[in-house]
Sequence to fold (599 residues):
Amino acid sequence: MRQLRNKASRRRVAAWVKGWAVACFALAILVPVADAQGVRYQAEDATRLGNTYIDTSGSGYDGAGFVRGFDNDFANRLRFDTVDVDPGLYELVFGYSSPYGQKGYDFVVGGDAGGGFFSPTALNEFTEDSAGLFELPTGQETIEIGGSWGYYFVDYAELRPYVPPPVSPVPTALSNANASASAQELMGYLASQYGQRTLAGQQVHDRYGYVDAAYLARSGGLAPAVYASDFIDYSPTRAQRETPSPESERAIQWAQQTGGVVSMMWHWNAPADLEVNGQPWWRGFYSDATDFNLTAALNNPGSDDYNLLLRDIHAIGDELQKFEDAGVPVLWRPLHEAQGGWFWWGEEGADSFNRLWNLVYDELTHERGLDNLIWVYTATGDIAGSHDWLPQGLNGESVVDIVGVDLYNGSRHDSGEWLELLELYDGQTMLALTETGDAPDAQAMDDRGVRWSWFTPWTLDDVLNELSEQELRDLLGAENVLTLDKLPTFSWSDAFVQLVGDYNGNGQVEQGDLDLVLQNWGDDTDAAGVPAGWVNDLPDGLIDQGELDGVLLNWGATAVPSFGEASVPEPGAGVLSMLIGAVLAVRRRNLLVTSGAAG
Fold:
């Protein structure tokens, strides 16, 4: 799927760029212009290669001019030779203008090749883009920029001394107020690790599958903690042509047998109007392979095309229902990379995308009642521009729980995109590297303060072809990376044993469980009013002395790690008096004598 987006050619370019960088030697020594923020190197003073040239027309640029002439060929590039900076960690910032729309660019810092995106600007408007963080061990490294999408203007390169900031804690409340106990459990765990450790993931495809024996032999037995897969074949316009593989069942079985975390996406084959522009039906999730008019469908509820949207959403709802029935929460990231426009759900702009997101959210959450989903919005490319696409509820309510980004032209730590996202979302939501064409470098991430919640290489080839055995073991064995064996025993794992008294299912018997009992005392648990999150009713069908006994006998016990949350609060004086009275009156039932097993 993603390999159809010219990823192979990008890799060839990256390999060529790295070879060029090694072969290059300094042709010019530039005089840097120092300012309060760092050391700036003007483009008009740099070494111009290929067809690049200086332009002094217009306004808005810094210095005596800017450089243009960049196209898709990296042969047309600029080379900056840095001098007079102390060895250390620096943020590389490019001053640029991009009056012809969003543009990608490639760069090389020493031997570190990567890429970024310039947000659109007006003519004569210059701004900045962060290419990321780079260690300059000698204080002298060659910086080159050019190629990729081209047709942008470069004003300067600037190096700014950098100290990674701490990552702020994020709230754990989910957008769905009725989120299941397992979804809350997963969200709480991810939040507890965020800013400290990153979960290793792996995208699963029929062609590649999850990690196999060869992978485990190379990794020393370490396996990714996140199983990321795709509902692509369940799209009705694909399923009517080919029988879908049982991917839902495979993912559920994996989650239950291993206790790992599942992430699901959906390459949504358009509901109709496929096989256009000479494209085959199976490419129907791409904009150039369908004429489906999303805006017209959304503007006409009850129309055939609107009903086809609902048909498709309900088909995926059937698959997600299997996960909820099994008690497995899902990191759910539908409608990914909309901003890029290469998928039909993003081709018609942010407004239509936002309306479609809300339709999917409403149908699955409110109409279907799927409460096991953690909603992940996936940005791509132009980070600043992606914020304008962040879905908002029709009444301003939250419909996103986590922000992710898909990166295929970055370096192995992707610090430029991380910094831009952190500036937008720090303290508001977790950030995840939901797809990447390059397996991250754990040490580089740690050094630069890059703290993705999880990362997901797109294929096994992206890992095995890039990393040696030692590099793979260094990545998965790093202290800041979490693999499958490091996860706690989640409630959806076959190895999990429910702790009596843990009625809200968070792995602890504490104030929340006592509150559930007291608030619902005397309720019939077989009736419609069973409290949200109730996971372990005792056999008499009532919330009564039996449930209170379970809380009292196991107060403070923990069935799974507490994920670094605050310690269990002491009950208030009034509640404590009630507890003491209840303890004196409690009937010791053999059914509830479980405290010896709790720990």
